[in-house]
């Protein structure tokens, strides 16, 4: 029928504008490398902030004692405590609790958000068992993983540049987030020192390095996306401080804000961006990360519905922004049942669309595939950009260099098609020989443990 033809035209056109041939991905990678150089050269020199983290050494394995971490980055936040055994001791014991953040706390006042977090932390601390007790006479110490763009002024202070990922509290912007947290801890009557403020990428890098010494890059693919890596301090022209003893500095790229004319963006991406809380910002994040994939998918499906793909009226639920989360999209994408039962059930339960034909459900799966594949391949291209900047995209004569990338985030962890597509694409980009020297490791909750480790190595009581 005419309706079917029209819907298929929309899918075809969308697919065409999402294409990511290797030649294009290499241009994206080169653009990423160029922007990295520009962001390191001067403050404001690039869309990539390339933030200096004040982490000039990663965990050594000698960290010892009880440390807390608090991880705030998306829809959930986590509190954890770890008991570190010191040299060769490893992690003796760890406990964590995950708490969801009520949406009204994400857009209310600064004090409300931080009070909520501090109260949950206080509850968690109150449940500390005897074998977790801190060294006597010392206040407990905390590593604060805060996954938003922050301009650090030291290892334990930094001002918020802007919110991302659905958070929007104007009065916090420009404030020191450690001071905000510390005030909230005081209001709770909880004695605890924040000894490290780290981005989740930096926490993941630290946690990854503790587990595997070859880790030099970390990437988060969760609600949002970001990357960090170990840079030579001398390769950071905008750094005017003393050169650290290690000669190195961890850089928080804030790669979510990358953009390039080489990115294959569609009319749907443009509309999503224009209607978002942060128009014009985080363009790369908006095509690769978990907060947005399901929403892109919904927008295309909605466009098809306007051409009567689901009958004469557009199903009302389908018009609701963000009603289709990436977990649902991934469940449909992974549907292996012969009649695509998972697709049918989700359409019915979430969108109140019933009576779809198998043929229609197949097109819907294809749509998931287009959106996920583009995101995964573009994140592989970004990774190639980092490897190029580090000189690790080639093999040097006589060198046995190993590069391990620590990856974390719900999208990478749970969206298998995405993960596979990313890993295959990276192989394709690097070639067989180089590929053998590069490994991706899933760093399960490395960011929280990493923050605790950095809080230990930057303890004020050493
Ligand atoms: P955050 O990024 O908020 O710190 P996570 O790393 O846990 O948290 O990532 C959560 C995100 O991962 C979700 O917002 C969602 O986009 C994505 N995600 C979670 N589960 C799945 C899933 N089963 N399939 C695809 N994506 C998922
Ligand atoms: Mg996270």
Ligands bound to this protein structure: adenosine-5'-diphosphate, magnesium ion
CATH class of the domain at 53-211 and 445-455: Alpha Beta
Task: Using the 3D structure, state the CATH architecture of the domain at 53-211 and 445-455.
Answer: 2-Layer Sandwich
Strand content: 15-25%
The main pleated sheet reads as: 6 strands, mixed
User: What is the residue-averaged pLDDT?
Assistant: 95
Our measurement of the CA-to-CA distance between the termini, rounded to an integer number of angstroms, reads 74 Å
SS element count, helices? 16
User: What is the percent of helical residues?
Assistant: 40-55%
Q: Output the CATH homologous superfamily of the domain at 53-211 and 445-455.
A: ATPase, nucleotide binding domain
InterPro entries: ATPase_NBD, Hexokinase, Hexokinase_C, Hexokinase_N
Keywords: ATP-binding, Glycolysis, Kinase, Membrane, Mitochondrion, Mitochondrion outer membrane, Nucleotide-binding, Signal, Transferase
Subcellular location: Mitochondrion outer membrane
GO cellular component, one term: mitochondrial outer membrane
Summarize the structure.
The chain is of the alpha/beta class. It is built from 16 helices and 13 strands. It starts with a helix and ends in a 5-residue tail after the last helix.
Descriptive overview:
- This protein is an alpha/beta fold.
- It has a domain of 170 residues: Nucleotidyltransferase, domain 5.
- It has 16 helices and 13 strands.
- It has a six-stranded mixed beta sheet with strand order 1-11-10-9-12-13. A five-stranded mixed beta sheet has the order 4-3-2-5-8. Strands 6-7 form a two-stranded antiparallel sheet.
- A hairpin with a 2-residue loop joins β6 and β7.
- The mean pLDDT is 95.
- The site of adenosine-5'-diphosphate has 16 residues, from α9, α10 and α13.
């Amino acid at each position: 029928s005419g309706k079917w033809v029209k819907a298929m035209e929309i899918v075809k056109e969308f697919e065409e504008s999402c294409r990511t041939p290797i030649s294009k991905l290499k241009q994206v990678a080169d653009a990423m490398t160029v922007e990295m150089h520009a962001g390191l050269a001067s403050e404001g020199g690039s869309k990539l902030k390339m933030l200096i983290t004040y982490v000039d050494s990663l965990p050594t394995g000698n960290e010892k004692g009880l440390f807390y971490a608090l991880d705030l980055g998306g829809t959930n936040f986590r509190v954890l405590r770890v008991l570190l055994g010191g040299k060769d001791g490893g992690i003796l014991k760890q406990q964590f609790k995950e708490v969801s953040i009520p949406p009204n706390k994400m857009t209310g006042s600064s004090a409300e958000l931080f009070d909520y977090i501090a109260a949950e932390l206080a509850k968690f601390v109150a449940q500390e068992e005897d074998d977790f007790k801190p060294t006597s006479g010392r206040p407990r110490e905390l590593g604060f993983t805060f996954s938003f763009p922050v301009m650090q002024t030291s290892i334990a202070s930094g001002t918020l540049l802007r919110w991302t990922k659905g958070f929007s509290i104007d009065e916090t912007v420009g404030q020191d987030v450690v001071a905000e947290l510390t005030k909230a801890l005081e209001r709770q009557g909880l004695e605890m020192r924040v000894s490290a403020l780290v981005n989740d990428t930096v926490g993941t890098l630290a946690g990854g390095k503790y587990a595997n010494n070859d880790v030099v890059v970390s990437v988060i693919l969760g609600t949002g996306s970001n990357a960090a890596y170990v840079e030579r301090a001398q390769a950071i022209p905008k750094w005017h401080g003393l050169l650290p003893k290690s000669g190195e500095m961890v850089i928080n790229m804030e790669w979510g804000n990358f953009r390039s004319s080489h990115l294959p963006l569609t009319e749907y991406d443009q509309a999503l961006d224009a209607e978002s809380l942060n128009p014009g910002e985080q363009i790369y994040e908006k095509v690769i990360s978990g907060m947005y994939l399901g929403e892109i998918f919904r927008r295309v499906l909605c466009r098809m519905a306007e051409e009567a793909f689901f009958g004469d009226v557009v199903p009302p639920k389908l018009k609701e922004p963000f009603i289709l989360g990436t977990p649902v999209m991934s469940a449909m994408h992974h549907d292996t049942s012969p009649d695509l039962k998972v697709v049918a059930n989700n359409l019915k339960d979430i969108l109140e669309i019933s009576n779809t034909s198998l043929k229609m459900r197949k097109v819907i799966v294809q749509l998931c595939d287009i959106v996920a594949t583009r995101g995964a391949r573009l994140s592989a291209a970004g990774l190639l950009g980092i490897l190029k900047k580090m000189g690790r995209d080639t093999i040097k004569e006589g060198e046995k260099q190993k590069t391990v990338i620590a990856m974390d985030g719900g999208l990478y962890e749970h969206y298998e098609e995405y993960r596979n597509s990313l890993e295959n694409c990276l192989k394709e980009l690097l070639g067989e020989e180089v590929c053998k020297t590069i490994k991706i490791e899933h760093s399960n909750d490395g960011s929280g443990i990493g923050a605790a480790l950095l809080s230990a190595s930057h303890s004020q009581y050493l």
